[in-house]
Amino acid sequence: MNAKARDLSSTIRLTIPGRQTAVRDGLRDLLDTLLLQSLPEDGRGTAEIVLAEALNNIVEHAYAHHDGEIEITLQLRQNELLCRISDTGLPMPDGKLPSGVLAPLGAFEDLPEGGFGWHLIRSLTKDLTYSRDNGRNLLSFRLDTQQSPA
Asked: What pLDDT was estimated at residue 115?
């Protein structure tokens, strides 16, 4: 694995730099682990979508003005994947997760920038929580490994 990763059978811990190329490489490394390879195709697809959206949001927003690392912990429990993502970037606006409610669509040039990712994250996860503790953003959620991303 290119990133700093530890695979402890049903638990994976991965630390990646908060940069776009590192997210792509880190996702590839995660998807290559035995833990995620053991998931049904739909569950693996759901995990990839949600992790990609969450990690890209951290890079684009939390680390927009400074560098840092992103810590990812995944734990498999029966038909659920427990996910925890931590970073030292900027906090969420107002200390809350975005609503993820899609704005009404109009003309192509009027489409909002963003919002689609949080809609996907909220639609595909369970028990989505965010907190800020000692300068760290903590995002956690559960994924049904049997759920289809469609």
From this structure: 62
